[in-house]
Structure formats: structure tokens, C-alpha cells
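QA checklist item 7 of 12: single-chain prediction sanity check.
[x] sequence parsed
[x] length recorded as 369
[x] structure emitted
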Amino acid sequence: MLNPHEGQALYAPPVPAPGPMVPPASMFGNVPGYEDTLAGGGGGYLPPPLPLHPTQDPEPAPVPQDWNIPSITEDVARERFILYASGYCCYNNAPAKDGVITNMQAFNTYRYRLETFTESRSTEWATKPYEGEAADFYTQTAPRPWEIPVTGPSLFQNHEENIKVPYTSSKKPCHTCSASGKMPCHECNGSGTKVCWVCNGSGRREEDRPCSQCNQRGRENCSKCHGNGTKECETCKGKQQLLTYINLKVEWKDNVEDYVVEQNSGLEVDNLSDVTGKTLFKNAQYMLYPVYGFPDPSLSQASDRLIREHQAKYSQNSRILQQQQTIELIPITKVTYKWKGGIHVYYIYGNEHQVKVPDYPATCCCSIM
């Protein structure tokens, strides 16, 4: 019979699984145009080449003269208020049904939105299990990052592509497992067995009965490696060889920034982020011209500032493909109503007729038993 502590003394406890090994620099070649490309960390975003032909100056777009839309009716205001109150189990809907609307005040709230659609490219040395691909390193000159043709998504749609750069692929022995395809199992430290979890290595159970889990051996086969003591190498997936290559990451991104004209309705600007408004103005060009002639000068100033900031910021390491600016009128109606001698307010806003109630006057406390 095994000593109760024999299993623990002969075998060290499991150790944490090792993290992925960083490939040595010797695995990667020197490719002209990719000298700063690193393994895993990339080489940073690559500045796009200058355009072959000078771009045309943006043209100012015509702006509408009428910036107003009618406010909602009293029937719509009451209907939305009742629907809102009905959505809360602790709200008595009497204020919504019986409250007397005394005033409805419309506020013209404008949201300016600038979108700059960009394409960015970055490179990094990458590896994958070798599966018979052609190793074409140096068979021809590798194209530069911005010379590789890529089909992008529709305008203003975020998307990402990873492309194997042609003529940069080589076959190399796996650095993690020394080209064996296997690694010691970290659960059992390569022994193939572990201390029996039922008898804790003693081979006996309570009342000195034989342990049937391990057949009195005190140890059982490791479930992670099925008693082999080794597992498939996670880096090469048992292939023993790796394909090294330069990966080109192409990222299309819609960079969006909003400016909302301040209004004195009392409704917080943050509430407007989840609603839409009526589009009054929309203009898209390769490079935009700021909006001028808007009734509120702060919006024109914001348009000028944001366009200059976007063009300076995103042209450094990205290629600007298109810009788009829109102006929406987001309807806000402040409704004042009287209920039980008190004066209260609520707001209806956006095309969706969302409701915001700062202080509903008839609530109750309830609990679920």
C-alpha cells in the first residue's frame, strides 16, 4: 500500500501554463520597405503617400433658409406621457391621464455631425502553423504597404482586413516546441498522471476502504493529456513548422464628432445622443468646406473648428477617403401641466418622441415577496 504522503512527495504540484513564446528575431528576414516592422507589436500606422495629383479645393454647399419645423400636438404629448407612465409598475398613471396641460413650448435644437472616413495601414511580422503554403520570400520584390490593392467597404462603414504581404513568406521550425510538435503537459508536469482527487494519493478511502477511482494506486491518468504527458504544441498545432510572413492590417474607420447647439429647455444634452432628428442639411466631399450662414453662429464656428481638426489629425497616419457633415433639427417640447394643484413638467424629444420626466408626482413603493 502506498504511503499517504508518497504521491505528494514524488511529484511536484501542477504549474501554470506557460505563455506564448516570443519568436526570435532570427526567424524573420529583412524586407525592403518593411525595416521597422516588428513581431507582434507591429510597426505602427504607416503615413500614406502623397497624392499624385493636387486635390481640388472644397466647394461651399448651399444651405437651406428655413431651419424650423412645427412642434407636436397636445394629443401626441398626452399619448406619449400615458405610454411612458404605463411602463413603470410603481407609477400611478393618473397624472398622465388627468393632468391639465397648461403650456407647450418648442425648442429648436440643432446637432452638427462631422464624419471623416479614413483608411489606415499597419504591418507586423506574424506566424501561423505551416500547412503547405508556398514560401515565396524574395522570389520577387514585395510591394510596399500602400501599393497593395484592397477592396474597401461602403463609405462610412467600419471594417478591417488582414492581408498576407506577397513575397514575404518563409517556412521555419517552430520555436516553441523545437519542431517536435509537442509540449509537456503543464497539468501533470509531463508525468501523465496526477494525485487521485478522491483519496488524495493514499490509495484508500474513509474507513480504510480501497479507492476505486485510482485502483489503490494513489494516482490517476491526467485528463488534460490523456496520460501521455505531452500535448499538442499550441503555436504550430502539431505541424512542427511555422509560416512566417508580414501581415498587413487595413482598417477603415468612420470618425464621428458631434456638436449640439445649447438650448435653454432644461433637458440635458446627453439625453439627445439616443434620438434622431430631421435632417436639414447634408454635404459630402473628399474635403469639406465649413457651413456658413447658419442662424446660430456657434454652429458655424464648430463646423470650421472640427473640419480643421479632423483634417489635421487624420491625415497624419491615415488616408482621408471622404468627409460628411449633417445638421439635424432635434425637436424638443417642454410640456407644463397641472395636477392636484401642483405644476409639473416633462419633455418629449427626437423623432422617436422619447419622454423625460424629471420628477413624476405619483409613485409608490412596492416590493416582490
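[x] summary fact logged: Confidence is low (pLDDT under 50) at residues 1-16.
[ ] second reviewer sign-off
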